[in-house]
Amino acid sequence: MIYAFIFFAKLFEVAISTVRVVLTARGYRLIASLLAAVEITIWLIVTSTVLLGITEYPLRAVAYGLAFVIGIYIGILLEDKLALGLAQIEVIAEIDVARQITKKFRDKEYGVTTYDCEGLEGKKLSVILKIRRKDVQTTIGLLREFSDIFVTITDIRKLSIGNIKRHVLK
Predict the structure, then answer these.
(1) CA angle 4, 14, 9 (to 5 degrees)
(2) Cβ distance 86 to 164 under 8 Å?
(3) Closest CA to 136 of 90, 73, 78, 72
(4) Among the four 50, 133, 159, 160, which has the fewest Cβ within 10 Å?
């Protein structure tokens, strides 16, 4: 019973910790602080449980270590599912293709910004889409119909002026 407690409590604590670190990096200070309070409380309880009986019950340390590893993995999955924040997708393409992309996404009411750029083989057009992270996979799916494009995705830490529509996709 104590091994299950150690394992699942540590797993939960590390998953919370992983999400907290990502939220901190994205500027969600209040949520990250609240998660830190939960995290440290669980850590103190679990760690003291493991350390108090470590010589008599060394498998407690194994349960603790295994839960740590799995907790990080689960925390990353959880953060991916939450997909909090914003992302920027930049598409660099031949001018005609970039104009087709621009039209497609403006028709879907995306905010689209374009600018001229130059690649190895001449003039190109860069198409910038700022979207919610939850919409990244759908947006990439829409871009797959275009060939010979170069796409980068960047997380946006903070949007200081302006806004992004809540319901981009229809």
Answers:
(1) 25
(2) yes
(3) 90
(4) 160
E-state strands within the chain: 86-93, 112-119, 122-132, 150-156
Range of the domain at 110: 86-156
Q: Which residue has the tokens 């759908």?
A: 138
Residue 41 lies in a domain: yes
pLDDT of residue 121: 84
Total count of domains within the chain: 2
Give dist(CA 163, CA 165) in Å, integer: 7
Assess whether 96 and 53 both reside in one domain: no
Burial class (CB in 10 A: 0-12, 13-18, 19+), 114: middle
Distance CA 51, CA 54 (A): 5
pLDDT for 23: 87
Question: Residue 120 sits in a domain of what CATH number?
Answer: 3.30.70.120
Q: pLDDT by residue (tens digit) across 113-170?
A: 999 999 888 899 999 998 888 899 999 999 999 989 999 999 877 656 655 665 555 4
Let me know whether 105 and 56 are in one domain: no
